[in-house]
Amino acid sequence: xxxxxxxxxxxxxxxxxxxxxxxxxxxxxxxxxxxxxxxxxxxxxxxxxxxxxxxxxxxxxxxxxxxxxxxxxxxxxxxxxxx
Length: 83
Fold this sequence. Notes:
Blueprint: H1 2-17, H2 37-50, H3 59-64, H4 66-82
């Protein structure tokens, strides 16, 4: 009985270690409440880019939407400094 209980715990521990989790970009402690949704999206993508090898940026929006561009630049800078 004790061996069976120990076996269950081992199986549960192995399964827990194999659980796939998607990396979440760091959440900087910044209040973006007064900014536009476009700025917030740029900020989130800039921050995500700072923590990855690839750059996540919508080039069309970056070139044509000032709020997106400023948000992306701010997010990238803020999150790069945290690493």
